[in-house]
């Protein structure tokens, strides 16, 4: 096959490209320029958008012996990832830009361009595995649980998986680094990228404050006790908070029971941030929209698991597809679940699909509902 190897400048994508060559594919390395001014994005070779990263990718391609090009995706990245990130925070939600980048850039814009140029597939350094199942290509978790990235790939459709290659899914990260060293790749010991690549100094709250500006509707507001309604303090922008956050609340005085307070809810119109005890973070149900299925959608209740964060644990759950949204019943309560996050659905190790969380029900609300008379519950 003719394969585009997306080379970020890190060790994983370099080894993935080399393995694609070893598999007999005709490989061309491509680095994505995601900013017209790379210095405005993360520096110090800690992201995937810097000049250093582009140079590292080019050197790796030279060592592997494949053609190398830089594709300018800065306009698409700004419109589909950065602007979306700002809009979501302004609306009081907590997005994951890596999912959006995979969905709209790496496996939409890049794949579309690659196919138009006559390529058959896109190979990346993501840790996930692909197998051919009865209903077509399936995506499963990686062998290395510490590096598994199936959560951020849960936005891929069945059609996109047919044109994807993940050469590292069956390997441990330690083995990948050792292989890079044996191949003479200078990125063998390069640190992994982390944080948000387009926030140059890692200060997400400060970056949001600068970008959203003084005219944002939720520029300032009150920090309120969720039980008593007491105003505990004020803030300069609700985008500095996310559900489940404990540090940086600056409410001035402790709770009556002396225990820490956590962010429970963010009201984007008024800018009100509601806080309370940790027990009030527990969520038992959630609703999600914009589902994207990695294969056939469930045709009935699916008793499987869901993952709610990129590095979070699995939660046993029953998932139901209702019209154009997904209802998830968690078998045990989860904490810190925020609208805007993705819920990724698994059936064993297989990734079924994902959706964007729009609403949650706290465990205490469910308990109160179950305590109602049976005839009232039936009418609800």
Automatic annotation (TrEMBL):
Keyword presence, tRNA processing: yes
Pfam families: tRNA_Me_trans, tRNA_Me_trans_C, tRNA_Me_trans_M
Reactions catalysed according to its record: S-sulfanyl-L-cysteinyl-[protein] + uridine(34) in tRNA + AH2 + ATP = 2-thiouridine(34) in tRNA + L-cysteinyl-[protein] + A + AMP + diphosphate + H(+)
Cellular location(s): Cytoplasm
Main location per the UniProt record: cytoplasm
CDD domains tied to this protein: MnmA_TRMU-like
Feature type site, description Interaction with tRNA: 126, 341
Binding, ATP: 6-13, 32, 125
Active site, renumbered: 101, 197
Keywords: ATP-binding, Cytoplasm, Disulfide bond, Nucleotide-binding, RNA-binding, Transferase, tRNA processing, tRNA-binding
InterPro entries: MnmA-like, MnmA-like_C, MnmA-like_central, MnmA-like_central_sf, Rossmann-like_a/b/a_fold
Domain tRNA-specific 2-thiouridylase MnmA-like central: 215-276
Keyword field contains Transferase: yes
Stretches the record annotates as Interaction with tRNA: 147-149
Domain of life: Bacteria
tRNA-specific 2-thiouridylase MnmA-like C-terminal domain segment(s): 284-357
Family: Belongs to the MnmA/TRMU family.
Function: Catalyzes the 2-thiolation of uridine at the wobble position (U34) of tRNA, leading to the formation of s(2)U34.
PANTHER family for this protein: MITOCHONDRIAL TRNA-SPECIFIC 2-THIOURIDYLASE 1 (PTHR11933:SF5), TRNA 5-METHYLAMINOMETHYL-2-THIOURIDYLATE -METHYLTRANSFERASE (PTHR11933)
Protein name per the record: tRNA-specific 2-thiouridylase MnmA
Organism: Nocardioides lentus
């Amino acid at each position: 096959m003719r394969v585009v190897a997306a080379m970020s400048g890190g060790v994983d994508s370099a080894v993935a490209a080399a393995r694609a060559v070893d598999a007999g594919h005709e490989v061309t390395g491509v680095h994505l320029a995601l900013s017209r001014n790379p210095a405005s994005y993360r520096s110090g070779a800690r992201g995937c958008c810097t000049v250093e990263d582009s140079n590292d990718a080019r050197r790796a391609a030279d060592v592997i012996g494949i053609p190398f090009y830089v594709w300018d995706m800065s306009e698409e990245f700004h419109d589909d990832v950065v602007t979306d990130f700002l809009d979501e925070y302004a609306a009081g939600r907590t997005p994951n830009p890596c999912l959006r980048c995979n969905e709209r850039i790496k496996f939409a814009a890049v794949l579309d361009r690659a196919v138009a140029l006559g390529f058959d597939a896109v190979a990346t350094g993501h840790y996930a595995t692909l197998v051919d199942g009865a209903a077509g290509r399936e995506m499963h978790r990686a062998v290395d649980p510490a590096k598994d990235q199936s959560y951020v790939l849960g936005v891929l459709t069945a059609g996109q998986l047919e044109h994807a290659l993940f050469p590292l899914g069956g390997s441990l990260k330690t083995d990948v680094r050792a292989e890079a060293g044996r191949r003479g790749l200078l990125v063998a010991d390069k640190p992994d990228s982390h944080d948000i690549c387009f926030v140059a100094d890692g200060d997400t709250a400060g970056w949001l404050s600068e970008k959203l500006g003084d005219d944002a509707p939720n520029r300032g507001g009150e920090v309120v006790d969720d039980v008593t309604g007491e105003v505990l303090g004020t803030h300069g922008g609700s985008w500095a908070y996310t559900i489940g956050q404990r540090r940086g609340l600056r409410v001035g005085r402790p709770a009556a029971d002396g225990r820490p307070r956590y962010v429970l809810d963010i009201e984007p119109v008024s800018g009100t941030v509601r806080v309370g005890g940790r027990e009030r973070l527990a969520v038992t149900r959630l609703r999600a929209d914009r589902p994207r299925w990695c294969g056939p959608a469930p045709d009935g209740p699916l008793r499987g698991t869901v993952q709610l964060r990129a590095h979070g644990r699995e939660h046993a759950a029953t998932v139901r597809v209702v019209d154009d949204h997904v209802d998830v019943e968690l078998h045990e309560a989860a904490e810190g679940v925020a609208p805007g996050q993705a819920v990724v659905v698994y059936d064993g190790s297989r990734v079924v699909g994902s959706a964007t969380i729009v609403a949650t029900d706290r465990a205490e609300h469910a308990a109160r509902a179950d305590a109602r008379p049976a005839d009232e519950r039936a009418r609800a």
